[in-house]
Amino acid sequence: MKLAIEVKGLTKTFGSFTAVNQVDMRIPENMVYGFLGPNGSGKTTAIRMMCGLLEPTAGEITVLGMQIPARTEAIRQQVGYMTQRFSMYGDLTVEQNLDFIGKIMGVTGKHLKRRKEEVKEQFNLQSFTSFLAGELSGGQKRRLALAAATIHKPRLLLLDEPTSEVDPNTRRDFWDQLFTMCDQGATILVTTHLMDEAERCHHLAIINDGIKVADGSPAALKSDLAAAIVEVKSPRPAQIKSHLHSLTPVISVTQVGMLLRVMVDPQLASPLEWLSKELASFVDVEIRTSSPSIEDVFVMATRKMSRDAEHGN
Amino acid sequence: MATNGLRASSIRTLAVCKKEVLHLVRDRLTFGMVVMIPLIQLVLFGYTINTDVRDVPAAVADSLENSFSRQLVMDLQASQVLDFRRTVHSPQELEQLIASGEVSAGVYIPPDAENRYYTGDRPYAQILIDGSDTVLAAAVTSLARFPFLPGGVVSNRSQAPGLSTRLLYNPEKRAALFTVPGLLGVILTMTMIMFTSIAIVRERERGNMELLIATPIKNIELMVGKITPYIGIGLVQVSIILFLGVLLFQIPVAGKLVSIFIACLIFILANLTLGLIISTLARNQLAAMQMFIFVFLPSMLLSGFMFPFVAMPKIAQQLAEVLPLTHFLRIIRGIILRNQPLSVVWEDLAFLLLFALFFLIISTIRFRKRLE
Ligand SMILES: Nc1ncnc2c1ncn2[C@@H]1O[C@H](COP(=O)(O)OP(=O)(O)OP(=O)(O)O)[C@@H](O)[C@H]1O
Ligand SMILES: [Mg+2]
Question: How far apart (Å, rounded) are the C-alpha atoms in residues A40 and A193?
C-alpha cells in the first residue's frame, strides 16, 4: 500500500500555544480521507504544514513519497490545495482566475483551454465565466476554488472545508466529483464539519486540541465507540434532559425534536434497564437502544479529551 | 529540459504580469493616479515653485557719491534682484533697517570704493542680507559675482540694455528648466515605489497569498512578473511629463529623447525594486505606506530637488548618494539642461542599474513562500 501522505510526530507551536501536537497520520493513495475536529483544533494548521506553507516545530512529513521541506516545490506541482478562506482574485473574472492558476500550475496552450472547459463543466461554472470572482455567491466561490485546485489534475487534493456555504444538491455533486477523481487515481484529504460527509469518507481522522484522538473507517469507528446509545422520547424533553445531565454515567445528551439521544457509559451492564429505572418518575416516556452515528463518535472523541485534560490538571 | 524549464518559467512570469495588468485596469483609482499625479504635480510645482528672486526691498548707503557709485546702484537695480527703496548715510542705519524688516538687503559703498575696484585687492562694496529667508539670501548672495563694468556699461546700455546682467538673472525660464526635469524624477520616485510597495503585501492582505505560494511559482518569476507592467506605466508617465514640459514650459528635449528615455527606464527599474523590497518587508499596506514615506521624504529633501546639493553638509551629501533620485537628477539635468551625452553620466547610470539589480536579488532572496 503506497502512502500519499505520511506524517510522524507533527507538531506546531505558536508561541506557547500548541496548535498541532504530535500527530501521526498515514493516508494511503487513492482514497477519500476525512479530517474532522472542532473549530480551532488544528486542521488548517496541519494541512498548511503538509503544503510547506508553515514550518513544523517538530515532526516529519512525506507527501507523495517526497520529503518536506527538501522537495516542497516538486510536491507542489502534483498537489491541489483549496484554502479554507477564499483565495482567488476577486477582481479577476472566473475565466481569468482559471487561466492564471492553470498557467502557474504548468497547464498551457490547447491543453489549458481544454482543461478550463472541463472544470467549468464539472463544477457548473459555464454561466459565470465572465463574472468577477469577488461577485460570486459563497457556494459559487467554493466551486471556482475547487475547479482551480483541480485544473492540473493533481495526484493529491488537500481540501480545507470545501463545502461550507454550499447547498445540499451542489454538495452531492461535489462529492460525486471527489469520488470520480478518486477513481481516476487521486488521493483526497478533506476537512469538514458535516457528519453526512464524514460518513462518506473511506477513512477518518479526528483531531481535538491539536491531538489526534481517533483514526479509522467510519464503520470501525462506530463499532468501536466506547458508549451505548439510548433514545428517549417524551412530550417534555427539557425536564428529562436536566435530570439526565445530573447522572454520572451519562456522557452526553442531544435533543432532536422530541427525541433525546443519550450517550451512556458502556461499563453499565444494561443501559436500557438502568435508564428506565432512573426515569421511572416521568410519565409518557419511551426508551429504546440505538446504533451509534458518526456524530456520536465525534462527540465522544472530542469530549473525552477535554475531560481527560481536566483530570490531568 | 533546460529550455523546457525556461519556457515554463517565462509562461509563469507572463501569467503574473498579465494578472497585474488586469488588477491595474480594474483598479480605477490607481489607473487614474498614473495620469493625474504627473499632471497635477507638474502644474503645481512648475508654476508655483519659483526660485527666481526679484525685487528684494533694499536700501543703499553711499559714502562715495560719485559717478562710479551711482552707476553701481543703477546696475544693481537693473539686475531686478534688488529694488532700492531707501537711501541712508551709514552701514549702521542699513543694519537697523534690515533688523526692523523694512528692507531685506542693504548695499554699503565705502568712500574708497573706486580705488578698491581698480586695485582689485579688496571688495569694493558690501551687501548686507537678511539671512532668515535662505532662498532669498542665496539669490542676493549671488550678486557677489555681479559683473560690474563702470564706464563700459553706458555704451552697452545704449545698444543692448542690461546685456551683461540678463544672462545671470533671466527669470521664469530658468526655474522651470530646473524644476521640470527634477519633477520627472520626483514623480517617478513617488508612483513607482508606491505602486510596487503594495504589490506583494496586497496579496497577503486579500488572502491570495496562501494560494499563490502553494503553487510551484518561483520567487524570481513572481518578482519580475510583478514589476514588469509598471515599467510600461512609468514610461507612459515620462511621456506625459515631457509632453507637458514642452507644451507648458518649453523644456528643450528635441534630439535627446532616446537618452532621456534610457535614463528614465533605468531609474524606473531602481525605484520598482526599491518598492518591491518594501513590499516583502511590510506586514500590511499601512506599514508599506509608512516605509514608502520613510524613503520618499529624504529623496525629496536631500537629492537636490528642493535644496542645492552642493550647499548641503557633507554627511547629508553622503546620505543622498544612496538615493536613486540624487543620481537621476544629475543624469537628467545633465541631459536636458547641459546637453550631456549619456557617456558623461555613466557612473550615475551604473549606480542605478546596480541598485536595481541589488534590490531585485535581495527581494527574491528575502521573499519566503511561507505564511509566517
Ligand atoms: N498564525 C497563527 N498564529 C497564532 N495562532 C494560530 C495561527 N494560526 C492558527 N493559530 C491557532 O491555532 C489553532 C488551530 O487553528 P486552525 O486554523 O488550524 O484550526 P482549524 O481546525 O482549522 O479550525 P476551523 O475548523 O475553525 O477552521 C487556533 O487556536 C488558532 O487560533
Ligand atoms: Mg480550518
Answer: 12
- Measured between alpha carbons, how far is B261 from B240 in angstroms, rounded to an integer? 12
Tens-digit pLDDT profile for residues B240-260: 999 988 888 778 776 688 999
Q: Would you say residue B79 has pLDDT above 60?
A: yes
- Domain range annotation of chain A: 3-222, 226-291
Number of residues in chain B: 372
Report the nearest atom of ligand 1 relative to the CA of A20: 14
Tell me if B214 and A53 make a contact (CB, 8 A cut-off). yes
User: In whole angstroms, how far apart are CA A132 and each of A266, B98, B233, B266?
Assistant: 55, 68, 24, 36
The residues on B that touch A, with CB distances below 8 Å, are 8, 11-12, 14-16, 18-19, 22-23, 26-27, 206-218, 369-372
Per residue in B301-337, pLDDT tens? 888 887 777 677 888 888 899 999 999 999 998 888 7
C-alpha dihedral, A154 to A156 to A159 to A163, nearest 10°: 70
Contact B370 A51 (CB under 8 A): no
By CB atoms closer than 10 A (0-12, 13-18, 19+), residue A270 is exposed
Residue of B nearest to A96 (CA): B19
Q: Do B210 and A79 touch (CB under 8 A)?
A: no
CA B325 vs CA A134, A158, B189: distances in Å = 39, 48, 7
Task: Find the helix packing angle between B219-249 and B346-366, rounded to 10°.
Answer: 140
A153 grid coordinates:
489534475
What Cα–Cα distance (Å) separates residue A113 from each residue in A109, A122, A254?
7, 14, 51
When the candidates are 1.10.510, 3.40.1710, 3.30.420, 1.10.132, the CATH number that belongs to B56-168 is 3.40.1710
Contacts of B310 (CB under 8 A, 6+ apart): none
Q: In what order do the strands lie in the sheet with A228-233?
A: A250-256, A259-264, A228-233, A286-290
**Domain residue extents for chain B:** 2-44+174-366, 56-168
Q: What is the mean pLDDT of residues B112-133?
A: 76
- B220 CA to centre of ligand 2 in angstroms: 30
Q: Is beta strand B56-62 parallel, antiparallel or unpaired with respect to A250-256?
A: unpaired
Name the CATH topology of A3-222: Rossmann fold (3.40.50)
Contact B181, B336 (CB under 8 A): yes
CB spacing of B208 vs A55 below 8 angstroms:
no
Q: Pocket residues for ligand 1 (CB within 6 Å)?
A: A 14, 19, 37, 39-45, 84
Nearest-CA distance from B231 to chain A in Å? Answer: 21
Mean pLDDT computed over A282-300: 88
Looking at residue A77, its pLDDT comes to: 94
For residue B282, the distance in angstroms to the closest alpha carbon of chain A comes to 19
Residues of B whose CB is below 8 A from A96: 19, 22
d(CA A20, CA B329): 55
Q: Whose CA is nearest to atom 10 of ligand 1?
A: A19
Q: Determine whether the interchain pair B216/A51 forms a contact, defined as Cβ–Cβ distance below 8 Å.
A: no
Q: Are B369 and B213 in contact (CB under 8 A)?
A: yes
Residue range A226-291 forms a domain whose CATH class is alpha beta
Among A45, A48, A298, which residue has the most ligand 1 atoms within 8 Å of its CB, making it the best to mutate?
A: A45
- pLDDT interval class at A135 (50, 70, 90): very high
Q: Quick one: which atom of ligand 1 is closest to the CA of A47?
A: 18
pTM of the model: 0.81
Residue A146 sits at the chain B interface (C-beta within 8 Å): no
> What Cα–Cα distance (Å) separates residue A264 from each residue in A235, A242, B116, B181?
21, 15, 117, 84
